[in-house]
């Protein structure tokens, strides 16, 4: 499977955006810093994500990006396809010329794997990733005994 950093970074950046957009538009500089992804690379990715209508851009002071639709309606497959990332385990890129001008004996195996991977990524929504990430993140809550901040898991803080 050829899922390169382009697809991985796009999904990571979209997850970062989805986690923070409730406070308003999210600046790419912030995503760049938090996720250690080059700002110029993010600008390229977000241009593609905007053209695919997955994000909206807001100009001016306090500008940045927001999701163009609900995170529940954006799948990981949508994100990967938007940045032109091929999910392909075949050696021939699906052209059935694995061995010169002929299909290899395992072509159907790899084609079926491609379908399975794409189907799985289509079922995973950005909202699902947000929910899982929030369950992992510690939150700061006040310790009722002395008022000092105490770190607790988000799942136990609720």
Describe the structure.
- This protein is mostly helical.
- It has one domain (5-87, 125-157): Arc Repressor Mutant, subunit A (Orthogonal Bundle), CATH 1.10.10.10.
- The chain is built from 7 helices and 4 strands.
- It has a two-stranded antiparallel sheet.
- Helix 1 crosses helix 3.
- It starts with a helix and ends with a helix.
Shape: elongated
CATH fold group? Arc Repressor Mutant, subunit A
Q: What is the CATH architecture descriptor?
A: Orthogonal Bundle
Oligomeric state of this protein: single chain
Q: How far apart, in Å, are the first and last alpha carbons?
A: 39 Å
Number of helices: 7
Radius of gyration: 20 Å
Low-confidence stretches: 145-158
Which SSEs are present, and which pair or pack?
Layout: H1 5-20, H2 28-35, H3 39-51, E1 55-58, E2 64-67, H4 76-82, H5 107-123, H6 126-136, E3 138-142, E4 149-153, H7 154-157
Antiparallel strand pairs: 1-2, 3-4
Helix pairs in contact: 1-2, 1-3, 1-4, 1-6
What is shown here, in short?
This protein has about 160 residues and is mainly alpha-helical. The chain contains seven helices and four strands; from the N terminus they run αααββαααββα.
Keywords for this entry:
158 residues; two-stranded antiparallel sheet; mainly alpha; Arc Repressor Mutant, subunit A
């Amino acid at each position: 499977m050829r899922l390169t950093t382009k697809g991985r970074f796009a999904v990571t950046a979209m997850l970062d955006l989805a986690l923070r957009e409730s406070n308003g538009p999210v600046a790419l500089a912030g995503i760049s810093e938090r996720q250690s992804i080059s700002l110029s690379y993010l600008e390229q990715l977000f241009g593609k994500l905007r053209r695919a209508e997955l994000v909206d851009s807001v100009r001016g002071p306090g500008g940045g990006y927001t999701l163009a639709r609900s995170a529940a309606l954006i799948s990981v497959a949508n994100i990967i396809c938007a940045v032109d990332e091929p999910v392909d385990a075949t050696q021939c890129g699906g052209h059935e010329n694995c061995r010169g001008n002929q299909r290899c004996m395992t072509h159907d195996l790899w084609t079926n794997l491609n379908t399975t991977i794409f189907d799985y990524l289509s079922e995973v929504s950005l909202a699902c990733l947000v929910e899982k990430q929030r369950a992992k993140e510690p939150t700061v809550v006040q310790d009722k005994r002395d008022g000092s901040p105490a770190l607790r898991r988000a799942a136990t803080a609720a």
